[in-house]
Amino acid sequence: KRIQDIEESIVFINKEEALYKWDQTSYPEVEVVKESIEPYQKLFNLVLKWQRTRKKWMDGSFLDLNGESIELEVEEYLREIYKMQKFFQQKQKKAEQEKEKIAGLKRKPKEEEDKQESATILICTSVVEQVKEFKEYIPLVSILCNPGIRPRHWEQITLRKILKQNLSPYLELFENISAGASKEFALERAMQNMVEVWDTVSFHYHPYRDTGVSILSSVDEIQTMLDDQIVKTQTMRGSPFIKPFETEIK
């Protein structure tokens, strides 16, 4: 905020100088300060974004979670925080080397042992551990957040509640339920596709001789499609996963 205020003041000063046709004053110190604080600002924004995202995943709507997209985001957070961690480690090492050079002394073994990492490195390390810990939950999210699972399978549940139950030993059971939900979802989609395909079908008719009655024409393709759907319907009715859609399939 202060840097922004200073930059606005510089713009105002330069405009005033331009009005008087004076040489515009430059403020290189401001750029130096901006470059110095930029990594810290970037780290702050990254940590804040991670905390907010993690809270959304942990305490937000469980049914809105998507294992695949979460995995991609987690990997991206890890890459970014590793880059920041490496940057600050190199920065600290360089600062220590310059300090030793100025002092004209080499660090003693005991001093090496007593060396403490900077606060920024500790923050990076902490976030890395948090991200890695959350990464272990992704398989569970992928199974329980299957798009085929419907509210009839569960309602109003959050990831935090599930994790508190220590459900890892039941992961195989959840996987079977998720697999069943996938099969139900596939049947539901197939039924929807069968219904939607008729939206594009047009029926043509023409007068039948001199009777004044019109009859359908060119029905061979329609009949073939109908026969195909009858076979599919009979097959689907024999599936053990059709029960939630028994009314529709009949």
Q: What structural class results from the helix and strand content?
A: mainly alpha
The counted number of beta strands is 2
Strand order of the largest sheet: 1-2
How much is the radius of gyration in Å?
33 Å
- Portion in beta strands: under 5%
Overall shape: it is elongated
If you average the pLDDT, what whole number results? 82
- Count of alpha and pi helical runs: 10
Intertermini distance: 66 Å
InterPro entries: DHC, Dynein_2_N, Dynein_heavy_linker
Protein name: Dynein heavy chain linker domain-containing protein
Layout: helices, strands, pairs:
Layout lengths: L1 H18 L8 H32 L7 H37 L5 H6 L4 H17 L2 H7 L14 H6 L6 H26 L7 E5 L4 E5 L2 H18 L8 H4 L1
Antiparallel strand pairs: 1-2
Helix pairs in contact: 2-3, 2-5, 3-5, 3-6
Question: Any overview of this molecule?
Answer:
By secondary structure, the chain is mainly α. The protein is built from ten helices and two strands, in the order H-H-H-H-H-H-H-H-E-E-H-H. The N and C termini lie far apart (66 Å). Residues 31-250 form the Dynein heavy chain linker domain.
Short structural description:
The protein is mainly alpha-helical. It contains 10 helices and 2 strands, in the order H-H-H-H-H-H-H-H-E-E-H-H.
